[in-house]
Amino acid sequence: MTEAVAREHEIELFPSQADLYEWEPPAGTDFGMCGLLSAGTGSGKTTGAAHKAAKEAMAIPPWDPESGEEQPIVAVVASTGKALESSVVPKLRAAMPAGAILKEKKSPEWFWTLHNGAKVIFRTLDGDVDSFTAEV
Predict the structure, then answer these.
(1) What does the alpha-carbon distance between residue 13 and residue 43 come to, in Å, rounded to a whole number?
(2) Rounded to whole angstroms, how far apart are CA atoms 30 and 64?
(3) What is the bridge-based pairing of β-strands 101-105 and 111-114?
């Protein structure tokens, strides 16, 4: 892992985005993050969530395929394919430290493989499967 990947990603966030970025689940809960952000257009929901998702993905301990453990998966979901491609993924990519994304594949499913072995999968809620695999 390069020093650039290990170093905390320098960002400037609005106060509400910083609150999201710093939020941690209550003690004693299983790891996982799921939430709903509600605010007006252009308020920074996607940017704040992208930085939080990048932070959490980078915190996943290194995975060894030989370990027998399941590969860690981070699911990134957007309302539509257009939102995913034009806003969510670019903001998440910008939030990731340099060198963090080792591999990107867009077909038949869109995913990244990160330097720590985690797989980031991209999905939509609207059933738009132009370049995505529908999961049942």
Answers:
(1) 11
(2) 22
(3) antiparallel
Q: What is the pTM of this model?
A: 0.73
- Give the β-pairing of 73-78 and 119-124: parallel
How confident is the model over 54-71, as pLDDT tens digits?
998 999 999 999 999 999
Q: Is 110 exposed, middle or buried (0-12, 13-18, 19+ CB in 10 A)?
A: buried
- Are 85 and 94 spatial neighbours (Cβ–Cβ below 8 Å)? no
Alpha carbons 114 and 120: distance in angstroms, whole number: 8
Categorize the per-residue pLDDT at 29 as very low, low, confident or very high, splitting at 50, 70 and 90: low
Helix (H, G, I), strand (E, B) or coil at 47: helix
